Task: structure prediction
Amino acid sequence: MKFGWQIVLGSIVGFFGAAFGSVGGVGGGGIFVPMLSLIIGFDPKSATAISKCMIMGAAISTVYYNLKLRHPTIDMPIIDYDLALLIQPMLMLGISIGVAFNVVFADWMVTVLLIILFIGTSTKAFLKGVETWKKETIMKKEAAKQMESNGNSSADVEYKPLPGGPTNGPLKDAKDCEVTVFENVYWKEFGLLVFVWVAFLVLQIVKNHTATCSTAYWVLNLLQIPVSLGVSGYEAISLYKGRRIIASKGEDGTSFRVFQLVSYCTFGVLAGIVGGLLGLGGGFIMGPLFLELGVPPQVSSATATFAMTFSSSMSVVEYYLLKRFPVPYALYFTAVATVAAVIGQHVVRKMIIMLGRASLIIFILAFTIFVSAISLGGVGISNMIGKIHQGEYMGFENLCKYDV
Result:
């Protein structure tokens, strides 16, 4: 590994990508992949593999940071374990499907899908941010009037609402929001998530040692379905019968219809397919999805990152076994992303406490997705034009003839 201007510039871009990506709960892969390809000069496969390492580093440090925090208005962790348990197994299944689609689909199809999807989700997230900002403004004005009627100066108001939260009540003191990591982990739910991770990892490793499209290959692929459906189905049935609740949604998280639960699981698979297809974390879909479900921005970001930690780490182990990336570069950029994620979380959390605007998270989410659409879309279009000039085949590929 040689230090030069490429490494310096790549480190700066990677730093800001990880900082914004960790705060928005999207990982930052949409910024990492173009940076590694265009600035550092890696081929697409190596860039995707190192990007996954960076996403994993940023996600692990963000989760560790979040494990010490409590929900701003409810007495629960900032990570919603029940929501993660419902979505994460389906996310893992979707990633496996998405990786296969990535082989079959032509590059131009992936690029077009990426641009449409990312511009759509970033626009949706931005509008949600504007709506949340307006709610915050109204609440701050109401709080100021209430303080004035009680004889206090409006300058002393420290009302910090949590838009989209179940109570819209004031934030607890920031010092009260921190507890030890062990108090904040729901061990049963965490154990189930680890079980899914281990099961999928074993199936993927064994699958990589079988011939593509052989009987064993398809059996191992199909075995992923009962693992993911079993865990997500257990959580869905528990939510439907009221044995469990998605606490971060408050009263709305206590009763669910079958259609709702099926929709959530379907979106989890969709997030995974998009993540696997584009070589990114599923946070680009999960972040906006959780916001639409009515989950508060802080919880949405923390839970999406938590779920991404499992999927990205599984990809990293697979890529390492396949020798897809040079280890020194991977370690360096993972360290950059890890440090950036913690700094980004710390700075934005202080800003939210100071300004009382949780909508900052939503705007960062929208901005990160939009920048990713421009950067990844630009790289994809450039590659597409190059292939057209060279007269390369641009149709569907045969999965069974693909060599990893």
User: Anything to note?
Assistant: Residues 7-81+96-182+279-385 form one domain.
